Amino acid sequence: MRPGIRDAVVSVGILFFLGKCAAAAPAPALEKDDLFAPYAKGVPKVTTVISEETKDGVKVTKLRFASAEGSKEGEVKDCEIYAIMARPANTAGQKLPGMLVCHGGGGMANEGGPIAWAKLGYVAIAPDLPGYGANDKMLSISRVTKMQFGADQIIPLKPPPYVCVLFDAVTAGLRAFNLLEAQPDVDPKKLCMTGISWGGYMVTMLSGLLDERVKATFNLYGSGFYQLEAIGSGALKKMDEADRNTWLKCFDAGTRLNRCRATYLLYSSANDIFFKPPSVMATLDAIPAGKYLCFGPNKSHWMSLPGGPVRWEYPINAEIEPAFFAHVLAGGNPPLPEPNAVAVSRDGKVLKFTVKNCPDRAVGWFYVSWLPDQPRGWDARDWARLEAVPGSNGEFTCAIPESLGAFDWFGGITFTLKAGTFAQPMSLSTKIYRCGEEPAK
Question: Are 216 and 329 in contact (CB under 8 A)?
Answer without folding.
Answer: yes
